[in-house]
TrEMBL record:
<protein>
    <submittedName>
        <fullName>Uncharacterized protein</fullName>
    </submittedName>
</protein>
<feature type="region of interest" description="Disordered">
    <location>
        <begin position="136"/>
        <end position="160"/>
    </location>
</feature>
<feature type="compositionally biased region" description="Low complexity">
    <location>
        <begin position="146"/>
        <end position="156"/>
    </location>
</feature>
């Protein structure tokens, strides 16, 4: 007996969208991938660099400064050699003034804005504040003018240039204890000197009295030197024992100097007269002042002396059986200053 198979009726799928079905679209995308879009081209930003410009600027400035420094050192060496021939006080004073003027002039030349050394490496330039870097890149000369306010670096062999020492313009008039001029007033001293030398009284600013006489304060070096050079024209009328300017003394303390000296036969020698010769023998210098110290030892056979020189003694020395001489570090001044 024959049978027939009945097929269910075909019902349309309400979700079938044909090729637009999501599954079909996904398969199509996998089979035919769309070409990927290229990323938009980007331009790499390069950092701002001033290395080349700054290095060249630093090299040029350093070469210019070193050239001036070489000339300066050569002049200093010749100046030092020439100054050795001046040994008298007036010559040395004038040479010192000339040296001060010479150093001042070169100090200004070496610290001038156009010759001040610039940083010689990029690391030194990079260490500057940003504002300074910008100024260097755009206004190099202005940057150099700012740097000139700083002191130039000290290089090996270069003399250290400092401010000139203040010049002492006083002239000291030494008087004996009983000199009549001690009883005068400052106006009388000034009028006498002015009249004798024909000097404008305004060039003699003050005449204060000091322990050993008078100190004449002049207005300038020329007047000070004039008073010393022509002292024979005015000092004798005042009974002056000496007329001098301030000196730098190197003073030594000599303890336990014997009060009495005897020769081979027991004859007593003059200790005070022998000390001058002994000092020159032991030191090679002539002292400018020898005086007893304020505080003396309890031993009646010895005493303590203060011996002053214009130059330091560069060796160990003593006087007869005394203790070794000891340099007093504080600079001694003429007795008028005490």
């Amino acid at each position: 007996m024959a049978s027939a198979t009945t097929c269910p009726p075909i019902v349309p799928d309400p979700f079938d969208l044909g090729i637009h079905t999501p599954a079909a679209m996904e398969g199509a995308q996998l089979a035919h991938p769309a070409p990927s879009a290229d990323p938009a081209p980007t331009t790499e930003q390069q950092p701002v660099s001033i290395i080349e410009t700054a290095t060249k600027l630093a090299r040029d400035r350093a070469e210019e400064y070193n050239a001036k420094l070489k000339v300066f050192q050569a002049f200093c060496a010749k100046f030092e050699e020439a100054a050795k021939q001046f040994t008298t006080a007036p010559e040395r004073e004038f040479a010192q003034r000339f040296a001060d003027s010479f150093l001042d002039s070169w100090n200004q030349a070496l610290t001038d804005a156009k010759s001040a050394p610039a940083p010689t490496t990029y690391s030194a330039i990079a260490a500057l504040p940003p504002a300074a870097n910008n100024a260097l890149a755009h206004h190099p000369r202005h940057h150099q003018q700012q740097r000139q306010q700083q002191q130039p670096p000290h290089r090996q062999g270069q003399p250290i240039i400092g401010a000139p020492l203040r010049v002492d313009l006083r002239v000291f008039i030494r008087l004996d204890a009983e000199a009549p001029a001690r009883a005068h007033n400052d106006y009388a001293i000034r009028a006498h000197i002015s009249r004798k030398l024909g000097v404008d009284p305004r060039k003699i600013q003050r005449v204060p009295q000091v322990r050993s006489g008078w100190a004449v304060l002049t207005a300038d070096i020329t007047t000070r030197d004039l008073l010393v050079q022509r002292q024979t024209e005015w000092a004798p009328d005042l009974g002056a024992a000496a007329v001098e300017t301030r000196q730098e003394w190197f003073t030594y303390l000599v303890s336990d100097y014997p009060r009495k000296l005897t020769d081979l036969y027991g004859n007593e020698a003059d200790s005070d007269a022998a000390v001058d010769e002994e000092i020159e023998i032991q030191t090679g210098q002539k002292p400018v002042n020898i005086r007893p110290a304020r505080h003396q030892p309890d031993n009646p056979l010895t005493k303590t002396l203060l011996v002053s020189f214009l130059e330091p003694v560069k060796k160990y020395w003593r006087l007869f059986s005394s203790r070794p001489a000891r340099l007093i570090k504080k600079t001694d001044r003429p007795r008028q200053c005490n």
